[in-house]
Structure formats: structure tokens, C-alpha cells
Structure prediction request, 544 residues.
Amino acid sequence: MTRGAADRDGTPPFSGRYGGLLVAGVGFAVTRLFVAEAVMLSGGPLAVAATAGSLVVGLAVSVAGVALAVGAFDAAYVADVARGCLLGVGVMIAALAVTVAATGFGMIGAAIGTQLLAANVLLAGAVGGMVNGHRKATLRRRREAIGRGANRARFINRLLRHEVLNAASIVDGHAELLRERDENGDGSRSVDAIRRSAARIESTIHGVGTIAEEREAVPVRLSPAVASAVESAATRDAHGEAVDAGTVVDVDLGPAERVEVDADDRLSVVFERLVEHAVDVRGADRVRVEGAVERHDAAVTIVDDGEPLSERRRDVLERGAFPEYDDPTSGFALQAVSLLVGEYGGRIRVTNGEDTRVSVRLPRASADAAVATVGVPYPDLRRAVVAGIGAGAVMGGVFWLSSGGVLPVIGALYGAESAAIGWVTHLFHSVVFALLFVAGASISTLRDRIGSPARTAAAGLSWGIVLWLAAAGLVMPLWLRAVGIPAPLPNLPWTGLVSHAVWGVTLGVGYLLLGGRFDGNASSTVTDDASRSTDADPERSIGS
Prediction:
């Protein structure tokens, strides 16, 4: 998740949490209220294609909204797309209102047909806004990557100048003292200083090489990384020198203890530098490390009783705003933390008060994200859509062979009692319910047990029966009554049970055959190796 994806307290914005539902609602409302009843099934081919195309586009917007709601997209991306959609529709509504105010309804109705015109204008605004939101999110990620590259170069330059040049000056000064000492003088102090400075130069050079690398993120467990960081910070200072542990550091990660995040083997450096900065720079006597788990993020919070972080230091952590010139008060530790967390796609929030709280939020590894809540990876979303279309086609065939009157009734839900409209809207329903099936199975406690074709077919069959009872048996009759068509309540014919059972089995098996999975995990191998830190000096010199 990008840094601009959350409010000041770290909570994703409303449009990031519910943006998918907003987009789905906009697409469905425009389609149901404006498009469906205006579809022309008679007339020239161009008129039929144009109106049917508007219906397909409107339903596709709804499907895209459902995919945003159940997919493993970060909150910033969902917020950008949802805001773009709402802004586009809002602008088009304003344009229509101005046009109506200037010309009156009569001129618009005489020209094209008010309903279809409004539908096409609103859909154009929705689709254009979503495309613009997608582009905005892409450009923001590129800007952040460029900004991290510039900050990395600035950081490396300052670190080399500060550490290497200072150490070289010490070496030069003590070498001169050794040269000038008399025959009875003791040069052991100068020799020790030269050795320490030479080691500092070497570790700094190695550390610069380490932080300069762009590494591929892998699943890393939080608990070993935090434990290693706390142990190192408590026993050694920022330069690797042994110190007496005078500060108590308590660790209670709670539900985050077994969580894996997308990071690399430098993750422990983040927490180590934050603890060291609290103790060595801000004079904390008590430090507590807490953990929390959220939808797609895991948070590790460093709580200390040291002096509050200044606004300049907060800007470094929260916004990645590095000072233009060398600033001894900021130090290199916070800059290193900012660079690494930004590279992991995480964010940092600082709260000053009686205690200072520095919260590091990192994206959870895909398998954990799927377990935590609805979060279907994008490739599985595509597989679910294809499987939903296939299952819907098979179910529609059953309808057609058993009773040709079902599809027109489905079309009547949208104001047009037509088999053609029924086919389109039936496939729309099938895709939406397929997405919900995959999302629900991914968070179910049975997700690890439905990997075989037989068990997936059984899960699909169960889902089909649920839909027959709830959607077809209750919701559809109520919907038909709402549009003025009599319908029995509940409406549970045996043909409906058969067709929904066939749909569920086809969906489950088809999704599995397309390569779909319910654990949210791609082909990557989860390993704890990346969470194990070493005692090598190169990593200790990162931002020291």
C-alpha cells in the first residue's frame, strides 16, 4: 500500500475500503434505471448493437466494482478508481443538468431519447473516470519509485561523506600522532582508533551496497525479524560496538506473531533502527513493540517514552521527505527506515503524546491476505470471471431446453421481458456469483480441503443450492413483484434446483481446471530464510 493510501491515523479512506461497492452500485443503478428499459430489440442492426452495447458496458462496470471489492487490490488503487468513477459520473450529471436547463427536456427527447442518452453519457463518465483513476494510480507508483531512487542516491551520498570522510579524518589524525610520538610514548590508543575507523569505513561501504539494491519481495515472518532487531539493538550500538543493556524492550506482537509480510532479509534493520533511534537519540528508557493485523496489512508499532519526534523527523518517516541539506538532527537511521519501508510498499505513521508511537504497516503476503479476508489475487479474478461465464452458459442451456420462459423472466427484472436481455443479465449474475464464490471459499476454514475436483465440485454444488434457495427462491420473486410482475413466494421449482446444481458443479470444476486456487498463494515458495538476520556488519551499517 502506498503512503498516500491512508488517513493520518493509518486507516484506509472510505473510498479505499468501500470503493468497489460504490463502483458496482453506480454501474448497476445506471444500467437498471436507464439502459435496460431503453434497449432496442427491433429496428436496424446498428440501433440494436448500440443499445445492447450500452447494457453490456453498464453490467461490466458493475462486475469491475465487485472485482475491486473482493480482489487483493491495495486501498490506494481502489480509492483512485472509485473516485475517478464517481467524479466522472458527477461531471456528466452536471453536464446533463446544464444542457436540460438550457434546452429543456423536449429537445433532448426529440433528438435521441432521453433515457438512452442519459445512460450513455453517465456510462461514459463512469468508464472514463475509472480509466483515469487507473492511470493516476499507475503514475503515482512511478512517481514514488522515482522519489525513492532520488532519496536513495541522496542518502548514499550523505552517508559516504559523513561516515567515510569522518573516519578517514580520524585515521589521518591518529596516524600523525603515531608519527610524532617519542620513543617512550604509547600509541595503543591511536592504533585502536585507527582500527575502529577502518572497520567503520569497511562496514559503511558494505552497507551502502546493501541498501542500494532493489530486491524482489518475498514472504517474511514478522516475529523472527522483530526478535532479531530487538536483540541486536539491546546488545550493540548503531556501529556494532557492544553495549550494556540499560533499556527494557518488551515485545508483544499478538496476532501478528505468525503473520508474513512482503519484504526481504533487511526487514529486521527497519525495527532495529527505530529501537536504536528511540534509545540512543531520543533517550527512551522503556520501549514496547506491539503488533496488529488488518485487512491486507500487518502493523508493528514501536512505543517509547523518549522525547517526541520533531516535525522534520516525522516528515522523513511518513512522507519520505528527506532534508535538502545534511541535517545532523535527522540522522541516517530514519532515512534508511523510510527507504526500506517505501521499497516494501508499506507506510509509516507517527503519533506523539505521552508516549511516541511509530507504526510500520507492511503488506501481508498473498496467502495471509486471502486468509485474513476477501482478497482474491488478480489472476484468480480473471479465472473466476471466465468460469462464471462458462457456468452461466451451461445453466442458460439447461433453462433453454427445460423451459424457454425462464430467460425472459430474468430480463424482466431489468424492465425488458426478452430472452436476449435475459441471456445478458443471466451471465452478469453468473459472473458476480462466481466472484463471490471464489472470495468466500478463499476465506473459508475449508479452503485447504477443496483443492481436488471432486471437493471443488461439491463446494460449487453447495453454493448453487444456497443461491437456489435465497436468490432464486426469495430475492427474485420479490424483485419481480417490485416491477409489477406476479410471482409466487417462495419460488422453488425442481427445475431451478437442477439448473443451479449444474451451474455450481460447472463453476467449481471449471475454476479449478483454469488453474484457480482458494489459498490466495501464487507459485512462490514461502520461506523463513529471509526473516533470519545475520551478525554481519554490512547490515548493521545501514543508516547507522
About this structure: The chain has 17 helices and seven strands. The beta strands are 218-221, 248-252, 260-263, 286-293, 297-304, 347-351, 356-363. Residues 114-180 form the longest helix (67 residues).
